[in-house]
Design a protein that fits this description.
five-stranded mixed β-sheet, 34% helix, homodimer, 60s Ribosomal Protein L30, Chain: A
Chain lengths: 347, 347
């Protein structure tokens, strides 16, 4: 009876979730947020209101953005890209999402003993090409080696420094009635990695969308589009980006699922795998919150770059965090943070 | 006969060393240099002449330094410190060695599934304290999770941004007749980590020297000491730092082993373990190349901070990379890059 009493107040499963790192702590979803809120923010003192893809620094007379990401994707090469492309474009995109021009990257390799040096050369060659495309310089680096079976071939960290091109691009700048612009179809990256890892084949090959977003940002700025906030759709996908921004700004958002482009093969793969494409990561797609007057012009700017942009919704006048989505059936569903991890280690 | 012929021209052991990552590629010694020269520099285009602890960036009107390091030390806690202290102080020190005031750090965690969250909190608390001591802000971060047995609890990457306080602190500024100032006794960090890992006990406990070096740099600058170059004595220790700088500058250096302070317990542990203290890592010691007129004043500045500095040698007039060391017996030995790895994963 005494034992039963103890179990009735402390569920061992929940207790364990609080005490140990789970794969879902790296999902970009609810558990990641919990870890940030409960462990990192209390120590490092940043307020969650200012959380963004990078940190704004004012040094001397310069306004800079500084960001970091580690990459642990498996496999290291997948259709359309590699860990090297991801490590360059992912960090470049975080700078771009803050309204900054990406300038310099650092690169830290953690290599597993026994890793093939030719394979390393191939990754480094992909990084070189990606850096050239994104017009950033890899200026400083570090290499550590860990014993066999203590790593998975390689992990890469890239950090980046950029210079602010347009100030005030952040979640707090989102306004009621802003239109939500999506730069292209979603879900390719997650499905490409998953299909390679699991050896799945579909009627046509799905390539990752991994790529740089700065040229899109620059084009929007050059055309004078009134952009308030941007977010790339990495871990947790489109839904997580919307939910996080709605929560950060305290304004409700409404989207229309039929306006969100999903490739037919990606959609089929998601159905087969039991995944919701709204939560599947992209690595070369973003949403931008633009002034309601600028929607059509913003669309034509991105169309001019060859992408397939759509206005997928808007910021409603209602306060309070809430993202509602109009489904294909005409019903509404509320999007929430991902609990658990749909696709581990896709970036 | 034909098979024998093949083996006679390609030694399989050497061949394997060229093709696979070895633990020694992370030692900071010869194999690390080889990897940088043969794989990273050709792709990333930085010239080896400018290699330093960080990269100098000129953005707008600001002169900045940018650096990165990953930390894979085992065990995560050791006498005198933890992976958290290392991750903050190590990157702070790299900025300081470039003559910069450390300002901002990023922090990327790679966590292993199942890792204890309380342990993570302890590491984060050490990082918080270290950042407060070094007066830097942790401004941006990232967390990834890898499956059990794909990591060793945690790996941390920190990157740092600082503002140049004194320009021209780099290997090319080293002059003939410069004095070589060592900030304190060597070898504590490597021996502290090794003793914890291997369960060794000595008559008195050896604590790591992990700590920040910016306050020493700042004091030297404030007193107007003519500092030409600095280097912290991490992987590969004092000898590797000297050999690298001699090679980068193309000037010979001479040091006197009897002038180099080594704690008696550290010396005894090194003898017991078959290690050369000149190659054992420190994490809170540096060498500074100062104008020959400023040696005494530089000593008194560092003594005023409570450390145990010494002039250990000088830059000779001879050209060509060469570090010669006068031994306790009065003979000379030539210091070379470490081949292999004395103490893996000490940072």
């Amino acid at each position: 009876m005494s034992d039963q009493g103890e179990f009735s107040v402390t569920c061992p499963i929940l207790h364990q979730q609080e005490e140990k790192i789970l794969m879902s702590h790296g999902s970009g979803g609810k558990h990641t947020s919990d870890l940030i809120e409960k462990v990192f923010l209390p120590a490092f003192g940043t307020s969650s209101e200012t959380l963004h893809d990078g940190a704004f620094l004012h040094i001397d007379q310069s306004d800079l953005v500084f960001t970091t990401d580690s990459y642990v994707v498996q496999p290291l090469f997948f259709p359309g890209g590699s860990i090297g492309d991801l490590a360059v474009f992912g960090t470049v995109n975080d700078l771009a999402m803050c309204g900054a021009r990406p300038l310099y990257l650092s690169c830290g390799f953690i290599l597993e003993e026994g890793f093939d040096i030719d394979r390393l050369r191939q990754v480094v060659a992909r990084m070189k090409d990606a850096a050239a495309l994104a017009q950033v310089k890899l200026v400083t680096g570090d290499t550590k080696v860990i014993e066999r079976a203590r790593g998975d071939g390689m992990y890469i960290n890239t950090s980046g420094v950029g210079v602010v091109e347009r100030a005030g691009i952040n979640p707090q700048s989102i306004q009621s009635d802003d239109l939500i612009l999506l730069s292209g179809d979603i879900g390719r990256h997650g499905i490409a990695v998953m299909s390679e890892r699991e050896g799945l084949t579909f009627e046509t090959s799905i390539e990752s969308d991994v790529g740089e977003l700065y040229s899109s940002v620059r084009a929007l700025f050059d055309e004078g589009i009134d952009v308030h906030c941007m977010r790339d759709l990495t871990r947790g996908g489109l839904a997580t980006a919307l939910v996080e921004l709605s929560a950060a700004r305290g304004l409700a958002m409404e989207i229309d699922e039929s306006a969100v482009p999903v490739d037919a093969v990606v959609r089929g793969a998601c159905e087969f795998l039991g995944l919701d494409p709204f939560y599947v990561a992209c690595e070369g797609r973003m949403i931008a919150f633009v002034s309601s007057n600028d929607g059509e012009q913003a669309l034509s700017v991105l169309e001019g770059l060859g992408s397939n942009p759509r206005i997928i919704g808007h910021v409603s006048g209602q306060s309070g965090p809430m993202v509602s989505s109009k489904t294909f059936l005409g019903t509404r569903r509320i999007l929430d943070r991902l609990v658990g991890d749909q696709l581990p280690r896709i970036c």
